[in-house]
Amino acid sequence: MKVRTPGRYPFELRLLHWLLALLLPAQVMLGFAAEHWTPRVISDALFPFHFKLGVLILCLMILRLGLRLRLPVTADDSDAPRWHRRIRPCVHALIYLLVLALPISGHVIWVWMGADRTLIGGLQLPAFFVPSDDDETGRALAWYVHVYGAWTLSALVSLHVAAAVFRQWRRKDGYIARRMGFGRVRSA
Ligand code: HEM
Ligand code: HEM
């Protein structure tokens, strides 16, 4: 039987959730390839794509955060254990925070590298600050946030996906589609 799904996230948030779920792993792989791929000419060619996709992700994430704060989202875990109800919003908030911090720290490294900030056409992203050759601390801090942030985000997202799949498998209630899917959900 197919049933309606009143507990679903609003359409805009579901759309952005799945769009970012596609773009983020692509961006992590692009960043890793750009940093480590040999020969160097290939990795150098990948960096401008990493920069542009990062700026797109930042814009989509700001939009998502704005909508998340405005649109109503009903909770769906009243029967979950207390520790689970506490930990879940923390993991979600950390994911939001990291997806905002990564493009910002990436931008700081980018400006320090003196790299080209052209987005499309002749449109240039402003630097927002003047890098100083003496300030190794700011540059190192941005690097730590970016590199360790990317791997922390990957770990948190893996945890998030595993938890969603496990919950659906255990309850057999179409949880993922019911909360984040499109169309009607098949119910047992
Ligand atoms: C890069 C990949 C992903 C990221 C960054 C991500 C991030 C998030 C975030 C931040 C939320 C909280 C939404 C909010 O409160 O605004 C969320 C909710 C959710 N995500 Fe993901 N997600 C990803 C991939 C996935 C995948 C692959 C699945 C399914 C296997 C999934 C299933 C869900 C579900 C079911 C919810 C609703 C949780 C609830 O009941 O409140 N997500 N996701
Ligand atoms: C959500 C967005 C982003 C994600 C997930 C991401 C992810 C990554 C990853 C996984 C790496 C490789 C880390 C390693 O060496 O192990 C990397 C490196 C790098 N990313 Fe990003 N990145 C993002 C946005 C950006 C943006 C917007 C820029 C530029 C404006 C940027 C500039 C860089 C640079 C310059 C490096 C090389 C850092 C180094 O010197 O080692 N990133 N990124």
The CATH topology turns out to be Fumarate Reductase Cytochrome B subunit
User: How many β-strand runs?
Assistant: 2
- From the N-terminal CA to the C-terminal CA, the straight-line distance is 7 Å
* Global outline: elongated
User: What structural class is derived from the secondary structure elements?
Assistant: mainly alpha
Largest beta sheet: what is the strand line-up? 1-2
* CATH homologous superfamily placement: Transmembrane di-heme cytochromes, Chain C
How would you describe the overall organization of this protein?
The structure is a single chain. Helix content is 70%, strand content 2%. The chain is mostly helical. The protein has a single domain, classed as Up-down Bundle (Fumarate Reductase Cytochrome B subunit), CATH 1.20.950. A two-stranded antiparallel ribbon has the order 1-2. The termini are close together. One protoporphyrin IX containing FE (HEM) binds at residues 27-28, 31-32, 35, 50-51, 54-55, 57, 99, 102-103, 106-107, 109-110, 143, 146-147, 150.
